[in-house]
Amino acid sequence: MSDAGGSPVQLARPDYWEEACRHLARKDRVMKRLIPQFGDACLQSRGDAFTTLARSIVGQQISVKAAQSVWDRFAKLPRRMTPAAVLKLKVDDMRAAGLSARKIEYLVDLALHFDSGAIHVDAWDRMEDEAIITELVGIRGIGRWTAEMFLIFHLMRPDVLPLDDIGLINGISKNYFSGDPVSRSEAREVAAAWTPYCSVATWYIWRSLDPLPVAY
């Protein structure tokens, strides 16, 4: 399998996954029921940081199918999907690939942040989640939800609770409140039992709504 830039995709399994599943099954009756339903499926990381964030920008406010179509056209423009290569692209070519003027501005800003060293990619392994979120939301077009998805799917941080995620809130409603509406504070109370593996529990909540694993 290859990513859009043609390089092999590396699918990595978090080393904490089995311990997380044991912890969640002990602490939470819903997790004890959900986890066995999905066998060996687990969170996986693919691609590199720049490509992952660029895809998230391209996919904003359009369907998954449309996002893939635009991405496929955009990814053919640079020889390799790198910040420096994106900065050399012509705006007209990017528009022709299906990108709006705003998304082009966002992608250029993303490339500038990476290319200039304004964000500390090499230090992310040693940085706290909130410090990384602060760096990412400083990039135009990236909000807290996108930053949290990046922490979960790219950096595979184990304890991220994306309370702005509609799927998580809907899944908590379905699995813990018989479908009744759920507030952020109620969701946070449910998730108290998940710590320090909120990312893993969130992944299983998503699976309870859509059995196909999500990958970014």
UniProtKB/TrEMBL annotation:
It is an enzyme of class 3 (hydrolase). Keywords: DNA damage, DNA repair. CDD domains: ENDO3c. SMART domains: ENDO3c. Pfam families: HhH-GPD (PF00730). One of its GO terms (cellular component) is cytoplasm. GO terms for biological process: base-excision repair, AP site formation; DNA alkylation repair. It catalyses: Hydrolysis of alkylated DNA, releasing 3-methyladenine, 3-methylguanine, 7-methylguanine and 7-methyladenine. Its EC number is 3.2.2.21. Belongs to the alkylbase DNA glycosidase AlkA family. This is DNA-3-methyladenine glycosylase II. The lineage of its organism: Bacteria, Pseudomonadati, Pseudomonadota, Betaproteobacteria, Burkholderiales.
